[in-house]
From TrEMBL:
Homotetramer. Its EC number is 3.5.1.2. It comes from Actinocorallia libanotica. It comes from the Bacteria. It catalyses: L-glutamine + H2O = L-glutamate + NH4(+). This is Glutaminase. Substrate binds at S68, N118, E162, N169, Y193, Y245, V263.
Length: 312
Protein backbone atom coordinates (compact mmCIF):
# COMPACT_ATOMS: atom_id res chain seq x y z
CA UNK A 1 0.00 0.00 0.00
CA UNK A 2 1.19 3.51 -0.77
CA UNK A 3 1.93 5.82 2.14
CA UNK A 4 -0.78 8.50 2.48
CA UNK A 5 0.10 11.72 0.63
CA UNK A 6 1.41 14.45 2.92
CA UNK A 7 1.75 17.87 1.32
CA UNK A 8 5.33 19.18 1.34
CA UNK A 9 3.97 22.33 3.02
CA UNK A 10 2.43 20.32 5.88
CA UNK A 11 5.60 18.30 6.12
CA UNK A 12 7.78 21.38 6.48
CA UNK A 13 5.43 23.01 9.02
CA UNK A 14 5.55 19.88 11.20
CA UNK A 15 9.32 19.67 10.83
CA UNK A 16 9.82 23.37 11.67
CA UNK A 17 7.56 23.03 14.69
CA UNK A 18 9.49 20.01 15.99
CA UNK A 19 12.89 21.66 15.53
CA UNK A 20 12.23 25.29 16.46
CA UNK A 21 10.27 24.42 19.62
CA UNK A 22 13.76 23.80 21.09
CA UNK A 23 14.66 27.46 20.42
CA UNK A 24 14.08 29.30 23.71
CA UNK A 25 15.94 32.57 23.14
CA UNK A 26 14.14 35.89 23.58
CA UNK A 27 11.74 37.44 26.08
CA UNK A 28 7.96 37.74 26.31
CA UNK A 29 6.91 41.43 26.16
CA UNK A 30 5.86 42.77 29.56
CA UNK A 31 5.58 46.54 28.98
CA UNK A 32 1.87 45.86 28.46
CA UNK A 33 1.42 43.95 31.74
CA UNK A 34 -1.32 41.58 30.46
CA UNK A 35 0.92 40.39 27.61
CA UNK A 36 3.39 39.12 30.22
CA UNK A 37 0.89 36.34 31.05
CA UNK A 38 1.46 34.63 27.68
CA UNK A 39 2.86 31.09 27.75
CA UNK A 40 6.39 31.48 26.32
CA UNK A 41 6.16 27.95 24.89
CA UNK A 42 3.26 28.70 22.52
CA UNK A 43 4.26 28.11 18.92
CA UNK A 44 1.82 28.12 16.03
CA UNK A 45 2.42 27.97 12.29
CA UNK A 46 -0.08 28.27 9.43
CA UNK A 47 -0.10 28.69 5.67
CA UNK A 48 -3.17 29.70 3.67
CA UNK A 49 -3.07 29.40 -0.11
CA UNK A 50 -5.22 31.40 -2.50
CA UNK A 51 -7.30 28.33 -3.37
CA UNK A 52 -8.47 28.33 0.26
CA UNK A 53 -6.34 25.46 1.59
CA UNK A 54 -5.04 26.01 5.13
CA UNK A 55 -2.09 24.09 6.61
CA UNK A 56 -1.44 24.31 10.35
CA UNK A 57 0.97 23.04 12.99
CA UNK A 58 1.40 23.45 16.76
CA UNK A 59 -0.67 26.04 18.66
CA UNK A 60 -2.29 27.42 15.54
CA UNK A 61 -5.69 27.79 17.26
CA UNK A 62 -4.54 29.56 20.44
CA UNK A 63 -6.06 33.08 20.59
CA UNK A 64 -3.79 36.06 21.20
CA UNK A 65 -4.07 39.82 20.67
CA UNK A 66 -3.03 40.87 17.18
CA UNK A 67 -1.07 44.00 18.27
CA UNK A 68 1.03 45.52 15.47
CA UNK A 69 0.14 42.81 12.98
CA UNK A 70 -3.15 44.74 12.69
CA UNK A 71 -1.33 47.70 11.13
CA UNK A 72 -1.16 46.68 7.45
CA UNK A 73 -4.80 45.55 7.50
CA UNK A 74 -6.09 48.80 9.00
CA UNK A 75 -3.84 50.72 6.59
CA UNK A 76 -5.49 48.83 3.70
CA UNK A 77 -8.94 49.74 5.12
CA UNK A 78 -7.93 53.43 5.37
CA UNK A 79 -6.66 53.35 1.76
CA UNK A 80 -9.89 51.72 0.67
CA UNK A 81 -12.02 54.33 2.45
CA UNK A 82 -10.00 57.54 1.77
CA UNK A 83 -7.68 56.77 -1.16
CA UNK A 84 -3.88 57.03 -1.23
CA UNK A 85 -3.55 60.82 -1.82
CA UNK A 86 -5.58 61.70 1.29
CA UNK A 87 -3.92 59.07 3.47
CA UNK A 88 -0.48 60.28 2.34
CA UNK A 89 -1.29 63.78 3.57
CA UNK A 90 -1.27 62.43 7.13
CA UNK A 91 0.97 59.32 7.09
CA UNK A 92 4.19 58.85 5.08
CA UNK A 93 5.64 55.66 3.57
CA UNK A 94 9.35 56.02 4.40
CA UNK A 95 11.19 53.34 6.41
CA UNK A 96 12.61 54.62 9.69
CA UNK A 97 15.28 52.12 10.69
CA UNK A 98 13.97 52.91 14.18
CA UNK A 99 12.20 50.92 16.87
CA UNK A 100 8.41 50.43 16.58
CA UNK A 101 7.70 52.99 19.30
CA UNK A 102 10.25 55.65 18.28
CA UNK A 103 9.24 59.21 19.11
CA UNK A 104 10.12 60.82 15.79
CA UNK A 105 8.13 62.56 13.07
CA UNK A 106 9.10 63.77 9.58
CA UNK A 107 10.83 67.13 9.99
CA UNK A 108 8.90 69.30 7.50
CA UNK A 109 5.51 67.62 7.25
CA UNK A 110 5.02 66.50 10.87
CA UNK A 111 3.76 63.21 9.45
CA UNK A 112 4.62 59.92 11.09
CA UNK A 113 7.15 58.16 8.81
CA UNK A 114 5.00 55.15 7.91
CA UNK A 115 1.88 53.22 9.01
CA UNK A 116 3.82 50.21 10.36
CA UNK A 117 5.31 52.04 13.37
CA UNK A 118 3.14 53.10 16.30
CA UNK A 119 2.98 56.80 15.39
CA UNK A 120 1.74 56.03 11.89
CA UNK A 121 -0.69 53.38 13.05
CA UNK A 122 -2.31 55.73 15.58
CA UNK A 123 -3.10 58.20 12.78
CA UNK A 124 -4.11 55.44 10.34
CA UNK A 125 -6.78 54.14 12.74
CA UNK A 126 -8.46 57.55 12.57
CA UNK A 127 -8.48 57.50 8.75
CA UNK A 128 -10.83 54.55 8.24
CA UNK A 129 -14.35 55.44 7.11
CA UNK A 130 -16.69 56.81 9.79
CA UNK A 131 -17.50 60.20 11.25
CA UNK A 132 -17.46 59.22 14.91
CA UNK A 133 -15.29 57.11 17.16
CA UNK A 134 -18.07 54.49 17.30
CA UNK A 135 -18.32 54.28 13.51
CA UNK A 136 -14.56 53.99 13.06
CA UNK A 137 -14.36 51.37 15.79
CA UNK A 138 -17.04 49.32 14.04
CA UNK A 139 -15.28 49.73 10.68
CA UNK A 140 -11.97 48.49 12.09
CA UNK A 141 -13.44 45.46 13.85
CA UNK A 142 -15.67 44.42 10.98
CA UNK A 143 -12.83 45.07 8.50
CA UNK A 144 -10.36 42.92 10.45
CA UNK A 145 -13.07 40.25 10.72
CA UNK A 146 -13.63 40.32 6.95
CA UNK A 147 -9.89 39.78 6.44
CA UNK A 148 -10.04 36.77 8.79
CA UNK A 149 -13.32 35.40 7.43
CA UNK A 150 -14.88 35.17 10.89
CA UNK A 151 -16.08 37.57 13.58
CA UNK A 152 -13.21 38.75 15.80
CA UNK A 153 -13.65 40.04 19.35
CA UNK A 154 -11.56 42.34 21.53
CA UNK A 155 -9.67 41.26 24.66
CA UNK A 156 -10.66 44.13 26.96
CA UNK A 157 -8.18 43.12 29.66
CA UNK A 158 -5.27 43.62 27.27
CA UNK A 159 -6.81 46.80 25.91
CA UNK A 160 -7.25 48.29 29.39
CA UNK A 161 -3.78 47.14 30.40
CA UNK A 162 -2.28 49.03 27.44
CA UNK A 163 -4.48 52.08 28.00
CA UNK A 164 -3.24 52.24 31.60
CA UNK A 165 0.45 52.01 30.67
CA UNK A 166 0.67 53.46 27.15
CA UNK A 167 2.34 56.76 28.00
CA UNK A 168 4.74 56.57 25.09
CA UNK A 169 1.91 56.20 22.60
CA UNK A 170 0.10 59.01 24.41
CA UNK A 171 3.18 61.23 24.00
CA UNK A 172 3.30 60.38 20.29
CA UNK A 173 -0.37 61.15 19.84
CA UNK A 174 -0.07 64.57 21.50
CA UNK A 175 2.99 65.39 19.36
CA UNK A 176 1.08 64.52 16.19
CA UNK A 177 -1.98 66.43 17.33
CA UNK A 178 0.28 69.45 17.88
CA UNK A 179 1.81 68.95 14.41
CA UNK A 180 -1.65 68.79 12.85
CA UNK A 181 -1.32 65.27 11.44
CA UNK A 182 -3.57 63.66 14.05
CA UNK A 183 -6.81 65.54 13.61
CA UNK A 184 -9.15 63.56 15.88
CA UNK A 185 -9.45 63.80 19.66
CA UNK A 186 -6.24 62.41 21.20
CA UNK A 187 -7.76 60.14 23.85
CA UNK A 188 -10.36 58.76 21.42
CA UNK A 189 -7.68 58.08 18.82
CA UNK A 190 -5.58 56.19 21.35
CA UNK A 191 -8.57 54.19 22.50
CA UNK A 192 -9.31 53.21 18.91
CA UNK A 193 -5.70 52.14 18.35
CA UNK A 194 -5.49 50.16 21.61
CA UNK A 195 -8.75 48.42 20.75
CA UNK A 196 -7.48 47.50 17.28
CA UNK A 197 -4.29 46.06 18.83
CA UNK A 198 -6.34 44.00 21.32
CA UNK A 199 -8.42 42.13 18.68
CA UNK A 200 -8.07 38.40 19.32
CA UNK A 201 -6.78 36.22 16.48
CA UNK A 202 -5.23 32.80 15.98
CA UNK A 203 -2.22 31.91 13.85
CA UNK A 204 -4.64 30.43 11.33
CA UNK A 205 -6.53 33.74 11.18
CA UNK A 206 -3.26 35.52 10.47
CA UNK A 207 -2.51 33.20 7.54
CA UNK A 208 -5.98 33.76 6.05
CA UNK A 209 -5.82 37.53 6.61
CA UNK A 210 -2.44 37.64 4.88
CA UNK A 211 -3.62 35.43 2.02
CA UNK A 212 -6.41 38.01 1.55
CA UNK A 213 -3.79 40.74 1.02
CA UNK A 214 -1.74 38.39 -1.19
CA UNK A 215 -4.85 37.70 -3.26
CA UNK A 216 -5.49 41.36 -4.06
CA UNK A 217 -8.01 41.91 -1.27
CA UNK A 218 -10.22 38.83 -1.81
CA UNK A 219 -10.60 36.48 1.15
CA UNK A 220 -9.76 32.95 -0.10
CA UNK A 221 -12.20 31.28 2.32
CA UNK A 222 -15.27 33.50 1.99
CA UNK A 223 -14.71 34.95 -1.50
CA UNK A 224 -15.51 38.42 -0.11
CA UNK A 225 -13.73 41.42 -1.62
CA UNK A 226 -12.41 43.10 1.53
CA UNK A 227 -10.29 45.85 -0.08
CA UNK A 228 -9.30 46.81 -3.63
CA UNK A 229 -6.30 45.36 -5.46
CA UNK A 230 -4.58 48.76 -5.11
CA UNK A 231 -5.16 49.01 -1.36
CA UNK A 232 -3.84 45.46 -0.86
CA UNK A 233 -0.78 46.14 -3.04
CA UNK A 234 0.05 49.38 -1.20
CA UNK A 235 -0.23 47.64 2.18
CA UNK A 236 2.07 44.82 1.02
CA UNK A 237 4.58 47.33 -0.30
CA UNK A 238 4.82 49.16 3.01
CA UNK A 239 5.10 45.81 4.80
CA UNK A 240 8.11 45.00 2.61
CA UNK A 241 9.96 48.21 3.45
CA UNK A 242 8.82 48.86 7.04
CA UNK A 243 7.09 45.75 8.45
CA UNK A 244 9.77 44.55 10.84
CA UNK A 245 10.98 47.98 12.04
CA UNK A 246 14.76 48.22 12.40
CA UNK A 247 15.13 44.67 11.03
CA UNK A 248 13.22 45.45 7.83
CA UNK A 249 16.30 45.69 5.59
CA UNK A 250 17.94 42.48 6.77
CA UNK A 251 14.57 40.73 6.75
CA UNK A 252 14.00 41.59 3.09
CA UNK A 253 17.50 40.40 2.17
CA UNK A 254 16.99 37.09 3.99
CA UNK A 255 13.31 36.23 3.48
CA UNK A 256 12.46 38.46 0.51
CA UNK A 257 8.76 38.74 1.46
CA UNK A 258 6.54 41.56 2.74
CA UNK A 259 6.01 40.90 6.45
CA UNK A 260 4.69 42.36 9.69
CA UNK A 261 5.47 41.52 13.30
CA UNK A 262 3.82 42.37 16.62
CA UNK A 263 4.75 42.36 20.32
CA UNK A 264 2.43 39.51 21.28
CA UNK A 265 4.62 37.28 19.06
CA UNK A 266 2.61 37.25 15.84
CA UNK A 267 4.33 37.46 12.46
CA UNK A 268 2.90 37.41 8.95
CA UNK A 269 4.52 37.18 5.54
CA UNK A 270 2.92 37.24 2.11
CA UNK A 271 3.81 35.78 -1.27
CA UNK A 272 1.70 37.91 -3.63
CA UNK A 273 -0.72 35.92 -5.82
CA UNK A 274 0.15 32.72 -3.91
CA UNK A 275 -0.14 32.50 -0.14
CA UNK A 276 -0.13 33.99 3.34
CA UNK A 277 2.01 32.78 6.25
CA UNK A 278 1.06 33.16 9.91
CA UNK A 279 3.48 32.48 12.77
CA UNK A 280 3.07 32.93 16.49
CA UNK A 281 5.48 32.52 19.39
CA UNK A 282 5.68 35.08 22.21
CA UNK A 283 9.44 35.18 22.86
CA UNK A 284 10.80 38.27 21.10
CA UNK A 285 14.26 39.38 20.00
CA UNK A 286 15.49 42.83 21.12
CA UNK A 287 13.78 44.48 18.11
CA UNK A 288 10.39 43.09 19.08
CA UNK A 289 10.15 40.32 16.47
CA UNK A 290 9.21 36.73 17.38
CA UNK A 291 12.41 34.64 17.54
CA UNK A 292 10.80 31.40 16.38
CA UNK A 293 8.54 33.23 13.96
CA UNK A 294 11.43 34.92 12.17
CA UNK A 295 13.43 31.67 12.05
CA UNK A 296 10.45 29.66 10.73
CA UNK A 297 9.55 32.25 8.13
CA UNK A 298 13.08 32.66 6.83
CA UNK A 299 13.43 28.89 6.52
CA UNK A 300 10.06 28.52 4.77
CA UNK A 301 11.13 31.18 2.29
CA UNK A 302 14.47 29.52 1.63
CA UNK A 303 13.19 25.94 1.38
CA UNK A 304 10.38 26.83 -1.03
CA UNK A 305 12.34 29.49 -2.95
CA UNK A 306 9.85 32.27 -2.10
CA UNK A 307 12.32 35.21 -2.20
CA UNK A 308 10.66 37.78 -4.46
CA UNK A 309 13.91 39.20 -5.85
CA UNK A 310 15.31 35.83 -6.89
CA UNK A 311 14.48 34.54 -10.37
CA UNK A 312 12.34 31.37 -10.23
N1 LIG B 1 -0.07 47.92 21.01
C1 LIG B 1 1.37 47.87 20.90
C2 LIG B 1 2.00 49.22 21.18
O1 LIG B 1 1.51 50.20 20.72
C3 LIG B 1 1.75 47.38 19.54
C4 LIG B 1 3.26 47.38 19.32
C5 LIG B 1 3.73 46.18 18.56
O2 LIG B 1 3.06 45.17 18.42
N2 LIG B 1 4.96 46.27 18.10
O3 LIG B 1 2.98 49.32 21.84
Amino acid sequence: MNAPFVSPIQDLLDDLHARLIEQRAGEVATYIPELGKADPEWFGLAVATLDGTVYEAGDSRVPFTIQSVSKPFVYALALQDRGLPDVLKQVGVEPTGDAFNAVRLEPYTGRPYNPMVNAGAIVTSTLVGGDTYEERRERILSGLSAFAGRELVVDHKVMDSEAATGDRNRALAYLMHGAGTLTCDVEESLRLYFEQCAALVTTTDLAVMTATLAGGGINPLTGETVVSVEAAAHALTVMATCGTYDYAGEWLVRAGLPAKSGVSGGLIAALPSQLGLGLFSPRLDPRGNSVRGVAACEELSQRFGLHLMRPA
